[in-house]
Amino acid sequence: MSPAQPTAPRLAVVGAGNMAEAILRGAFAAGVLGPDEVVAADFSPARRGVMAGLGVAAVEDAASAIGGAEAVLLAVKPQALGSLGALGRIDRDAQVVVSIMAGVRCDRIAHACGGPTRVVRVMPNTPLLVGRGASAIASGPDARDGDDALALELFGAAGVAVRVSEAELDAVTAVSGSGPAYLFHLAEAMQAAAVGLGLAPELADTLVRQTLLGSAALLAASDADAPQLRARVTSPGGTTQAATEVLENRGVQDSIRAAIAAAAARSAELAG
Ligand SMILES: NC(=O)C1=CN([C@@H]2O[C@H](COP(=O)(O)OP(=O)(O)OC[C@H]3O[C@@H](n4cnc5c(N)ncnc54)[C@H](OP(=O)(O)O)[C@@H]3O)[C@@H](O)[C@H]2O)C=CC1
Ligand SMILES: O=C(O)[C@@H]1CCC=N1
């Protein structure tokens, strides 16, 4: 597909990495935006190539992408904010800045833009890639009514999008932003255990993926909560009880609580 050349893009994307790609794919699939309404900036020729493959005009220089866009999506790593001189080009009256950077507060973004700015922060997660994202959206102090509309549409197109306060975002980041990694950690451990018990790696992989997928679908669809669903699998004196006792004796629930607390603390630290 040859990239479009928008004269006044609706959305300028700064940082066309994994998350930006997931967000754009979801938005295009749902028809929320067309590729000709987007311009993306990335240092990496390979990432610009990915954008071109989506039909999006891609440039190297963020400053040249920003001009005229209705909204600017900041999708670089939090550590890159300091070197984003292009933010000085933001029209703070006319443009909305949507940031997915973990931990970076609205006031820091506004400072980088040169003063009060219409900032909307979003914490998405990678299941966006398959249309099953969980995204939380917080409007900053200088955002106007309706400034979160594009974010709600964009992120709602690829899963669930909910409004939260900025104060809640560190906890959200720890739970749903990083959350997919916790499940993948469990998948790794289950696959290794299955192979350790003598199952072929391909069989272990199939069984673990389908077990996690089916369990997540059951949790999502059921009126029962997680403890009730767990009780239904656990026959008294049976195999699940034997496993659960080991998990409890080894403090797995405490470990998960501590891990999520560490993620929230790290998100707060990234605020600088
Ligand atoms: N991954 C996840 O699960 C989640 C991530 N986030 C947030 O999403 C953000 C993006 O993450 P992710 O997509 O994984 O990051 P990536 O590193 O994949 O993508 C960022 C891209 O931006 C480029 N870049 C950096 N600075 C500039 C600049 N000034 N101008 C143009 N391009 C630039 C980088 O190039 P180069 O590599 O050459 O520097 C890179 O290609 C992060 O802030 C993260 O906190 C939020 C929720 C979940
Ligand atoms: O690990 C991180 O910092 C980012 C934010 C949430 C998921 N990934």
TrEMBL record:
<dbReference type="GO" id="GO:0055129">
    <property type="term" value="P:L-proline biosynthetic process"/>
</dbReference>
<comment type="pathway">
    <text>Amino-acid biosynthesis; L-proline biosynthesis; L-proline from L-glutamate 5-semialdehyde: step 1/1.</text>
</comment>
<protein>
    <recommendedName>
        <fullName>Pyrroline-5-carboxylate reductase</fullName>
        <ecNumber>1.5.1.2</ecNumber>
    </recommendedName>
</protein>
<keyword id="KW-0521">NADP</keyword>
<comment type="similarity">
    <text>Belongs to the pyrroline-5-carboxylate reductase family.</text>
</comment>
<dbReference type="InterPro" id="IPR029036">
    <property type="entry name" value="P5CR_dimer"/>
</dbReference>
<keyword id="KW-0641">Proline biosynthesis</keyword>
<comment type="function">
    <text>Catalyzes the reduction of 1-pyrroline-5-carboxylate (PCA) to L-proline.</text>
</comment>
<dbReference type="Pfam" id="PF03807">
    <property type="entry name" value="F420_oxidored"/>
</dbReference>
<dbReference type="Pfam" id="PF14748">
    <property type="entry name" value="P5CR_dimer"/>
</dbReference>
<dbReference type="InterPro" id="IPR036291">
    <property type="entry name" value="NAD(P)-bd_dom_sf"/>
</dbReference>
<keyword id="KW-0963">Cytoplasm</keyword>
<dbReference type="InterPro" id="IPR028939">
    <property type="entry name" value="P5C_Rdtase_cat_N"/>
</dbReference>
<dbReference type="InterPro" id="IPR000304">
    <property type="entry name" value="Pyrroline-COOH_reductase"/>
</dbReference>
<dbReference type="InterPro" id="IPR008927">
    <property type="entry name" value="6-PGluconate_DH-like_C_sf"/>
</dbReference>
<feature type="domain" description="Pyrroline-5-carboxylate reductase catalytic N-terminal">
    <location>
        <begin position="10"/>
        <end position="103"/>
    </location>
</feature>
<dbReference type="GO" id="GO:0004735">
    <property type="term" value="F:pyrroline-5-carboxylate reductase activity"/>
</dbReference>
<feature type="binding site">
    <location>
        <begin position="75"/>
        <end position="78"/>
    </location>
    <ligand>
        <name>NADP(+)</name>
    </ligand>
</feature>
<dbReference type="GO" id="GO:0005737">
    <property type="term" value="C:cytoplasm"/>
</dbReference>
<keyword id="KW-0560">Oxidoreductase</keyword>
<keyword id="KW-0028">Amino-acid biosynthesis</keyword>
<feature type="domain" description="Pyrroline-5-carboxylate reductase dimerisation">
    <location>
        <begin position="166"/>
        <end position="270"/>
    </location>
</feature>
